[in-house]
UniProtKB/TrEMBL annotation:
It comes from the Archaea. This is Uncharacterized protein. Keywords: Membrane, Transmembrane, Transmembrane helix. It comes from Methanosarcina horonobensis HB-1 = JCM 15518. The chain crosses the membrane at residues 35-55, 61-81, 125-143, 192-213.
Length: 333
């Protein structure tokens, strides 16, 4: 009874720390999105008003690229905070379902969060920002196309008209002006296409990086399966029962057939002892199942290896040798 109470106390302290981490990083994430989205809106607004200024295309493209880079960087930091919150939330949820049976706070919050599928919408918001930045950048560059060339053509025409007064000179000047205009327009068109292609390439790269990061920065599980193993006691005496619990974190159920190896116990000599399922077991999504490990034949530091992977859990179990109670022996004379 005292051991169960001690395990409950440790689990409750860990649960409180997990909730503290969730609360702290949720505040960080809220501030990041609040000020980050405002800054993105400011960059988009600054990009859109460039149409009223006589900036060259490189300057306009550069501001669009800066906006896209900032959006991707913001998403990277956003994902980092969300992964920490997710990991702490999973741990708190496991503690609630395995040890703290009278607490359901994190379990309920996780259910509501998953039902809303908010994480998918977050990625779409960032991708939407990139698309908007691309559209604004393209409109600003295209809208200003042709203005410098027209000014140069008109200036060349006026100069030719003033200098050449004869009909032949005027005809020659007009032909020269048309040739110059054609060359300038061709160069301007090539420049326009180049800037638009660079803008599209930058936007496509930003969307690709966001989608790539959303997959690669997902939580990793050390044994390749979405499951969590927990031990209720890390120090016991020989003969005590140690509860080993697996929680299914996947969307599909986990199955253990009869006589299938559930886990292996590695003793202090490095030998492995198998624990097998006595019946067919099916663990649903977010469900758990527990086994009792009899430590009678073990002594010293033991490690728990889930399934047959020979990949032990980080925490070991110290099985202390059971000492026989001393008997008072009186000499009889």
């Amino acid at each position: 009874m005292a051991g169960d109470q001690s395990a409950y106390t440790r689990a409750f302290d860990e649960w409180k720390e997990a909730r503290s981490v969730i609360s702290r990083f949720d505040g960080y994430l809220d501030g990041l999105r609040r000020y980050g989205f405002v800054f993105i809106a400011t960059l988009l607004a600054a990009n859109s008003i460039q149409i009223y200024f006589n900036f060259n295309n490189f300057t306009k493209l550069f501001l669009s690229l800066i906006t896209i880079v900032f959006i991707v960087s913001l998403y990277l930091l956003d994902t980092y905070y969300r992964r920490i919150i997710e990991a702490a939330s999973i741990r708190a949820r496991i503690l609630e379902t395995v040890v703290l049976l009278d607490i359901e706070l994190n379990d309920i919050i996780s259910d509501k969060f998953e039902e809303g599928k908010l994480q998918g919408y977050i990625k779409k918001i960032y991708n939407g920002f990139i698309v908007i930045a691309m559209i604004i950048g393209a409109v600003v560059i295209i809208a200003d196309h042709g203005t410098p060339s027209s000014t140069l053509v008109n200036s060349s025409t006026q100069s030719t008209t003033q200098v050449n007064s004869s009909a032949l000179s005027t005809t020659f000047g007009s032909s020269s002006t048309l040739t110059t205009t054609s060359v300038i327009q061709d160069a301007s068109s090539i420049s326009l296409v180049t800037y638009i292609l660079l803008l599209l390439l930058a936007g496509a790269s930003g969307v690709y990086i966001i989608n790539y990061l959303s997959d690669k920065l997902a939580l990793k599980y050390p044994r390749g399966r979405k499951e969590d193993w927990i031990i209720d006691n890390f120090s016991c005496k020989q003969g005590d029962k140690v509860r080993i619990t697996v929680t299914n974190l996947d969307k599909t159920e986990i199955k253990f057939n009869v006589n299938e190896v559930v886990c292996e116990i590695m003793d202090k000599k490095g030998l492995f002892h198998q624990m097998k399922a006595e019946v067919n077991i099916a663990i649903p999504s977010n469900g758990n199942y527990s086994w009792l490990w009899d430590t009678t034949s073990f002594e010293g530091i033991c490690k728990i290896c889930p399934r047959e992977g020979k990949n032990p859990l980080r925490r070991s179990v110290c099985v202390r040798e059971k000492t026989e109670p001393q008997k008072n022996i009186t000499d009889k004379h």
